[in-house]
Amino acid sequence: METSVNNNYEHRLSYLYQAIESGSLFRIQRMLNGLKPGEIAHLIEASPPQQRKIVWELVEQENEGAVLVELGDGIRASLMEEMDVEELTEAVQGLSVDDMADFLQTLPQTVIHQTLSSMDRQDRERVQEVLGFDEDTAGGLMDTQTVTVKPDVTVDVVLRYLRRQKDLPSHLDRLFVVNNDNIYQGSISLVTLLTHQPDEAVQDIMDENSTVIHAATPSQQIALIFEDRDLVSAPVVEEETQRLLGRITIDDVVDVIREEAEQSVKSMAGLNEDDELFAPVLTSARRRAVWLGTNLLTAFMAAWVIGQFETTINSAIALAALMGVIPSMGGIAGSQTLTLVVRGIALGQVGKTNTRSLFLKEIMVGLLNGLVWALVVFAVSAFVFKEPSIGIVVAIAMLLNLIAAPIAGVTLPVALKKMGIDPALAGSVLLTTVTDIIGYAAVLGLAALSLPYWKSLFG
Amino acid sequence: METSVNNNYEHRLSYLYQAIESGSLFRIQRMLNGLKPGEIAHLIEASPPQQRKIVWELVEQENEGAVLVELGDGIRASLMEEMDVEELTEAVQGLSVDDMADFLQTLPQTVIHQTLSSMDRQDRERVQEVLGFDEDTAGGLMDTQTVTVKPDVTVDVVLRYLRRQKDLPSHLDRLFVVNNDNIYQGSISLVTLLTHQPDEAVQDIMDENSTVIHAATPSQQIALIFEDRDLVSAPVVEEETQRLLGRITIDDVVDVIREEAEQSVKSMAGLNEDDELFAPVLTSARRRAVWLGTNLLTAFMAAWVIGQFETTINSAIALAALMGVIPSMGGIAGSQTLTLVVRGIALGQVGKTNTRSLFLKEIMVGLLNGLVWALVVFAVSAFVFKEPSIGIVVAIAMLLNLIAAPIAGVTLPVALKKMGIDPALAGSVLLTTVTDIIGYAAVLGLAALSLPYWKSLFG
């Protein structure tokens, strides 16, 4: 029987890292064999690049496709880059039609071609049907493998038919009733089948009012329908004809809900949906640079507004106008890191086993962004505001704060969690305090200490 | 058969408001009768207070409990305040044990007492068992109504037993196999029952490795387990004895995932989990004041840091130190509104039908918070920093920006959505720009125009 240890994600992670450190690949392999694809994907997402690679190489070939499907888009793409056409074609085999369709869309043309031509005609047509729909609609989400019965048969016939099936689809809670033209008539749940007499006809006991989803319904709306109606599966039909096309199951809907929510959390913090805990430093730095750059632009606009009132502030105007940029850039960088770490904690992907790796990665990202934006802010100060001395001060402060901010973004939520305080709420407040104070102290401290010297150099 | 119109949330909302405006209560009632409790809850959450009240009064009494269960905590509490003990007791009847337990914990003692004493002994004991667990654990989430079979019976006996049942629990995808002491042995899915021969024994075909959840498992971890293993239902057992206590179903897990994600989005923006689109103005204003107050405190700490470098900035120090407070407060207030509106759009709760109500509400909240924080910032400027003139300028700018910010928070995402741009991502950038520019322009513009006058008054 399942033991409690296997249900604890943090415990599983630390077991994995111990095994990797002691070089016991056999123990890792045995552990991976006992996990579902979704759980393996979860472990991979929670691992720094090196461990990630080891785990991925130990995944059995027949499971590779199923694990890839469960991974976030960013990680999946990076793992797939390392695979050749043969390996990819192999990985796609054995996936269900809806998973395969999702997956094929991200593959190179040669792989799509090879995969499709290696399938039997019925499967190929099914995959092509799903590929014809937008992936964010019911048509793109659905599995075309359905179990259908005719309205005039009896319960007994249905039961005998089911008993002959070897391979029923997952999450089968209801059969769909269709006429000879495959037009949807209603559905009959397994519970209804089990609780009615063998001689009753399907059409007398089927549910004609069960929820039907049109092929073009957007996935977000499907999620709301499943949520509000507590569905496990629902038929997908062509809108005009009511022809049955496939079915959608709750497991795919749960993925839609989770992805949509994650994307929303991330984009509010200016993160891209592909941003993940252990994305490569360069990729992370480049993605976050977009948001930092936009913020710098708005800060310069604010500085311009401040500049319009020169007589009011009357002196040291450039410093006063530019110093606000430092804490605000730190706030942005820090809250992006904070968002990833807080979500990682919520999803069981951040624990003491990987905090250090995360820490190092974030320092690198901070350093890269710090260098870039220090240069930019220096250039603008020196050439637009004609204040090279202040530019140097502001640039050094920028670098310091952009390194300090992600460090605070990792350590604050981890520390708060240890103290039993909700890192999502308290983290943002504390982070802003830290980035504001370090930011202002850096820019003004440097100004006090070194501005006269720079002025003596540049005049 | 279900028509497409009923699946479109925005269409449903505008139909509702038209019916309310034309006073056609009968049409509303007919519409509500065709909806599931979750859908009615969704409509109520998307409605401003007045419409909310009308819809709630038209919900049939027998559905009231089920709708209350589906509502967010904040709205539920406000609706329940208007109900007397009899109505509440009535509403609780007919709920499943897990829903009832969730619900009872939020009710006054007299209602709990009356409800429990009006139930038969078996149900009462079940509810009390669930009430004994923390509501955020498997024990608190579970339904105690389970369908169990003994390991030594045959498929045929199980099928005949099921056929005699009138009232099987929802989401029944598997039966639990227990011995005579109610110790969990394994599970058998309906599909297995349907595809095996009648004379096979349960113990030969049951799944002994299916996932088991311990009563103390936190709900967030349950969500991960259901997600990673694609479960529809799972048994809850006592950890030491493996005694079967109840079952958890995917519909409750979906609620956990959604709530957890919503709470995370909200708390990153400093919103309380009870904050909702149409919460009463005073409640919203008070809740958001906490975050604004904290931000002001950190801003004053930053101002103190700036003050340490007085010789560097050398003049107009107080204005330079305090002016940064205005855009940052506007940023906080605006992004809170933005977060609510962006999530409302994502969940189909914000459309052109209710934008105006939302707009008015947010202006009121902004006005209230603006007045409070204008006073505070004036008091601190005048009495701590000894700058009453600058205090007046900063206070007026604060009021203006705290009214402008929520207006931007509503209009930006709605406008972006109309233009087909993701309001979550673009909204945050634009909002910061708006609140920064209005903030700095207000504080410096007012200073330029009126500071000499205030100085002549206060010296």
What does this molecule look like?
2 copies of one chain form a homodimer. Chain A is mainly alpha-helical. Chain A folds into 3 domains: 4-135, MgtE N-terminal fold (Alpha Horseshoe); 148-249, CBS-domain; 269-458, Orthogonal Bundle (Tetracycline Repressor, domain 2), CATH 1.10.357.20. Chain A has helices at 9-21, 25-33, 37-45, 49-58, 61-70, 73-81, 85-92, 97-104, 109-117, 121-131, 138-141, 155-164, 190-195, 202-205, 219-229, 250-268, 281-307, 310-313, 317-323, 325-346, 355-384, 388-418, 423-458, and strands at residues 148-149, 174-178, 184-189, 213-214, 233-237, 244-249. The first copy, chain A, has a 3-stranded mixed sheet. A 3-stranded mixed sheet of chain A has the order 4-5-6. In chain A, α15 (219-229) crosses α16 (250-268), α17 runs parallel beside α21 and α22 packs antiparallel against α23. The radius of gyration of chain A is 28 Å and the shape is elongated. The model of chain A is unreliable at 1-6 (pLDDT under 50). Chains A and B meet through α3, α12, α13, β4 and α15 of A and α3, α12, α13, β4 and α15 of B.
Question: Which features would summarize this protein structure in a list?
Answer:
homodimer, 459 residues, mainly alpha, MgtE N-terminal fold, CBS-domain, Tetracycline Repressor, domain 2, 3-stranded mixed β-sheet, 6% strand, elongated, disordered N terminus
List the SSEs and their pairings.
2 copies of one chain form a homodimer.
Chain A lengths: L8 H13 L3 H9 L3 H9 L3 H10 L2 H10 L2 H9 L3 H8 L4 H8 L4 H9 L3 H11 L6 H4 L6 E2 L5 H10 L9 E5 L5 E6 H6 L6 H4 L7 E2 L4 H11 L3 E5 L6 E6 H19 L12 H27 L2 H4 L3 H7 L1 H22 L8 H30 L3 H31 L4 H36 L1
Parallel strand pairs in A: 1-2, 4-5
Antiparallel strand pairs in A: 2-3, 5-6
Helix pairs in contact in A: 3-5, 5-7, 7-9, 8-10, 15-16, 17-19, 17-20, 17-21, 20-22, 20-23, 21-22, 22-23
Protein name (chains A, B): Magnesium transporter MgtE
Subunit structure (chains A, B): Homodimer.
Function (chains A, B): Acts as a magnesium transporter.
